[in-house]
Design brief:
Strand order of the largest sheet: 19-18-20-13-21
Structural class: alpha+beta
């Protein structure tokens, strides 16, 4: 908040306090654009079908949720609704539930001028939960949704009911983006169905209108240009692997809420330039063709920060990032299902060296999948140490020995001779490649052969992760500000083809504790369960948890800009001209 006040003071000094100067500044802002570098094409920019970190950088200005976490306070802040509902306990079909009365802003409109109503919320909820929709990432979060109620006398009001104990009920109810019912379900073929009916696993629609609406819904990921949405910008132009251009909407309904960071539009055009190579992007930045870029290379970032000439034109910001890097291990593999083998592989990762050598110290180690910044992170668990001797001992105990002089351990597994030779999938980034190379060298000393295989992330997901068709993979996980619900990523229910548990991890004790956690509203009880889950998984070593990086953002001094812990680390729509 102090930084914000300081920036406001600076802005007032620059533009002056009189009306003339204020008008001049507004005029100068008109037509202003910001150029942002992306290291890869997002492919899709739809939060329902492609909730990826790279897609978020774009869709956050187009698709708005009912509420989101404020970039400063990190608390839920209303966007499409008038206030954050408190929630009240009530009875529904003789069952105690928690209800949230949601009131949409009277001013909220779709980009075609149609008013946003409770019908849009109802349709969105039903579209997510329909067992024939392809919105798979969101479905697990609505497991505890009970019902929705609309009001004939108030088209802006809706009440949503959840299991009374579900810990994330408010967050799930409020942080979803909306879909336009009048576009995707004009015949009300989906909206008219009951929630319990369309959620049933054996439900198969026989209604031609419903089938048509479902096809329209499942086809929306292909749409990018000028989609009907509620955000302050619209995607007006895009060229695959080249650029995406967002234009500020004219006469936008959210302009009157100028204190709301999610509804602001201080620049008229946001241009995302796809530049995979970081050095090329830096050259473009020096030439004034890029105004903001996030860097992977910590060493290069630190070197640039010390450059006295560059430092005059750029700010170097390192906000905490709610992200961790990890090496996924296919727990369904015949070899890697052995806990001793996984543990040995973990001891071959010299993570302290990775942080120092590759990140310049701009990272924090983690012993598990909950971020160290979380209050319930189990700091009693020490991150596993690099120990080749211990790794060799574990592999000896697992029965893998070197036999034929090639330096690679082997063992007969299920009647077949298997060598400790694994492919590690890389996304192609220099960081993942450098970590893999260092790991490859250390693994060799323990009789483990590592082969590096670079592929696009979209192909890794489609061809490998979701079908458990891999050995190891260099990946990252980004988290939101809400408390963690580990069900999707770590419960055995989702260790199935197409599920979010892409490492195939399964532990009955962990499953039970996750289930208890999800219906516990007592913070102390939840903290205890979080830590117990971490302890059990620490012993299982389902994957190799590496570290949590700091974000490394370069921003041109042309803008007064604040960064945030909230993903992706900035809100370009809030940037102001510095002169």
């Amino acid at each position: 908040m102090q930084l914000r006040n300081y920036l406001i003071i600076c802005l007032l000094v620059i533009i002056g306090c009189d009306n003339d100067n204020t008008e001049k500044n507004k005029a100068a802002t008109q037509g202003k654009e910001i150029n942002i570098r992306l290291n890869r094409d997002p492919r899709y920019v739809n939060p329902f079908f492609s909730p990826s970190s790279i897609g978020r950088e774009i869709y956050q200005y187009i698709y708005l949720p009912l509420a989101d976490y404020h970039p400063e306070s990190l608390e839920l802040h209303p966007i499409l609704i008038t206030e954050i509902p408190a929630g009240n306990f009530t009875t529904l079909d003789n069952e105690e539930v928690i209800a949230y009365d949601i009131n949409l802003r009277p001013e909220a409109k779709w980009s075609d001028g149609t008013t946003v109503t409770a019908l849009d919320y109802e349709y969105t909820i039903k579209a997510i939960n329909h067992n024939q929709s392809n919105i798979s990432a969101w479905k697990p979060y609505f497991q505890f949704l009970k019902d929705i109620k609309l009001y004939k006398d108030d088209p802006k009001k809706v009440t949503v009911y959840f299991d009374k104990d579900y810990m994330l009920s408010k967050e799930i109810a409020l942080t979803i983006q909306l879909m336009p019912a009048h576009i995707l379900d004009a015949t009300k073929a989906i909206s008219s169905k009951s929630l319990s009916e369309i959620k049933a696993k054996d439900y198969i629609s026989q209604d031609s209108l419903e089938i048509k609406s479902l096809a329209l819904l499942n086809d929306t990921p292909k749409e990018k240009i000028n989609v009907i949405q509620t955000g302050p910008y619209t995607l007006s132009s895009a060229e695959m692997n080249q650029y995406l251009i967002l234009d500020k909407k004219e006469d936008y309904w959210g302009e009157k809420f100028n204190e709301n960071p999610f509804l602001q539009a201080h620049v008229n055009k946001i241009i995302f330039k796809i530049v995979p190579d970081e050095l090329t992007a830096l050259t473009m930045a020096k030439e004034g063709k890029v105004d903001l870029m996030m860097m992977n290379s910590s060493q290069r970032f630190l070197e640039l920060k010390e450059d006295s000439i560059l430092g005059k034109n750029w700010t170097f910001q390192v906000p905490q990032l709610l992200v961790y890097y990890y090496m996924a291990i296919n727990n369904k593999s015949k070899i890697l299902s052995d806990k001793k083998v996984r543990r040995a592989l973990a001891h071959l990762a010299d993570i302290e060296d990775y942080i120092e050598t590759l990140e310049g110290g701009l990272a924090t180690r983690t012993a598990g999948h909950f971020h160290p910044a979380r209050s319930y992170y189990n700091d009693k668990l020490s991150p596993l140490k690099f120990d080749v001797k211990l790794a060799n001992s574990l592999l000896d105990d697992a029965g893998y020995i070197e036999r034929d002089g090639d330096g690679v351990r082997q063992k007969t597994v299920y009647g077949e001779l298997r060598k400790l030779e694994f492919d590690i999938l890389l996304t192609g980034s220099s960081l993942s490649k450098n970590i893999a190379l260092l790991y490859q060298e250390a693994a060799k000393s323990a009789g483990v052969k590592i082969n590096l295989v670079a592929k696009k992330m979209s192909l890794i997901a489609k061809e490998n992760l979701y079908d458990f068709n891999y050995d190891l993979a260099m990946l990252r996980v980004g988290m939101d500000e809400a408390i963690d619900d580990p069900y999707g990523r770590w419960h055995s229910d989702n260790a199935v083809p197409g599920g979010l548990n892409t490492i195939g991890y399964s532990n009955k004790q962990v499953d039970e504790k996750i289930e208890q956690l999800r219906v516990s509203r007592n913070p102390m009880d939840r903290d205890k369960l979080y830590k117990e889950i971490q302890t059990l998984m620490y012993e299982d070593t389902p994957c190799i948890f590496l570290y949590c990086p700091l974000n490394k953002i370069l921003i041109s001094n042309k803008f007064l800009a604040e960064t945030t812990t909230k993903r992706p680390g900035y809100l370009a729509n809030t940037f102001l001209l510095s002169q």
